[in-house]
Amino acid sequence: xxxxxxxxxxxxxxxxxxxxxxxxxxxxxxxxxxxxxxxxxxxxxxxxxxxxxxxxxxxxxxxxxxxxxxxxxxxxxxxxxxxxxxxxxxxxxxxxxxxxxxxxxxxxxxxxxxxxxxxxxxxxxxxxxxxxxxxxxxxxxxxxxxxxxxxxxxxxxxxxxxxxxxxxxxxxxxxxxxxxxxxxxxxxxxxxxxxxxxxxxxxxxxxxxxxxxxxxxxxxxxxxxxxxxxxxxxxxxxxxxxxxxxxxxxxxxxxxxxxxxxxxxxxxxxxxxxxxxxxxxxxxxxxxxxxxxxxxxxxxxxxxxxxxxxxxxxxxxxxxxxxxxxxxxxxxxxxxxxxxxxxxxxxxxxxxxxxxxxxxxxxxxxxxxxxxxxxxxxxxxxxxxxxxxxxxxxxxxxxxxxxxxxxxxxxxxxxxxxxxxxxxxxxxxxxxxxxxxxxxxxxxxxxxxxxxxxxxxxxxxxxxxxxxxxxxxxxxxxxxxxxxxxxxxxxxxxxxxxxxxxxxxxxxxxxxxxxxxxxxxxxxxxxxxxxxxxxxxxxxxxxxxxxxxxxxxxxxxxxxxxxxxxxx
Length: 568
Ligand code: DON
Known about the structure:
Bound molecules: 6-diazenyl-5-OXO-L-norleucine
Oligomer: single chain
Helix content: 25-40%
Largest sheet: 7 strands, antiparallel
Low-confidence stretches: 1-32
Strand order of the largest sheet: 4-3-2-8-7-1-16
CATH architecture of one domain: Orthogonal Bundle
CATH topology of one domain: Serum Albumin, Chain A, Domain 1
Distance between the termini: 36 Å
């Protein structure tokens, strides 16, 4: 970490410090007149900043960013998917679940052949992979409750970007090429996305029309009328046929839920409840890490011992995830018992500091996994942490003809059959079985850490099951390792999820890395599986004066902006 960076995130000598945290917000910082956005691309960051500058609050900016990303970040930004929004407005935490739901005709065995084997790709590619989209309803509901600017004004920048076009960044074109391959060639993604090329202005006129309907009619511009007709007509094209009906669209509702709230090392944690597994998993990881401070004492960041200990925590958490977590409207999730300190102390008690616990010994502990994230804070101390997704890059590859947007492949987040891993390699059973109207279990973890009630660190990430471990590592880096935000976000990340057995997914060890780490982990019995990058964090922190600081993740094309705006 650079000295400059360390200073940026460290409290001055006179500031009150929470024990073990090298970062403090002085009293009175809450009235700061600055807002900030951390988004996955520059165009959406500019859109968010314009809303804040015009006096919009964090929720207004979040809505405009989400709609802009549906245009400028088609691989994950969406109106054809769903997501979660964690917020803090006027000091009160809230959570909005606008996750996709299974169509009414969905069945527990819809992806299985007669012999019970899972049909390769059906939950991932094409019409049948899509859940009923939740994004437009979610953004509308957030606006109804918290918005201060007119809805049409928040949709307008997205319409202009779709109509007038923009230069597609190289990374976006590269991901399109990868997705074309994965989705089975040129018959997917529709003519427009297939034709997108670097150096050529990318215009999306059908999407501009769809967004115009949404601007004028609100959710009826998506869930009824022309857009709904186009979605239903799309279901009949190609094989296998899709099953989303007009009734499914008309019935879709977003849900206000109580966020998972906890305290950790003197900070407030506000994060995602079921149907996300993320918040419970994050609280379990943070709590167990603190309960085992004895094991972590003196262990250097990202050393083999450190990675092993973190993997041991992850193992236990992912075993619980597979067994107990699912849509709470369909499955009783034992939230309190999973977060109980005594339970977590027992669970973390068996960790051997030197050797991995044998995978079969880690059972669920109670008796008996493309996505994008952005964070916003406004000058009044309100914050929004939003992760939304169409699941895989470019979702199911299905572009709704005439409407110009991509449908998700979120159905793959259900367990297609007990114990069969999804695309992120995570498994599940009855808790996450498919049922009509049910939401698939998610790992999305939009999180807000507060200090003295004010937003202190607003963050989240894409990455399927890696989201949980990514958010956990960034928080641990900032709080336990006193890294400045940029270093905490940039640091090498790794991931373990119980299965595949003893496998640690890791980013390449950088040039400064200790060469012994890989050898030591291998000697302990771990298999290291390299992966280009783990997560893409969009985080906003606070410097010692209480002003926001942003740290775009160097892994992708994230952007951060800070502006002085009038407090509202
Ligand atoms: O909800 C989930 O957990 C997944 N559908 C998220 C997908 C994702 O993060 C893909 N991003 N790289």
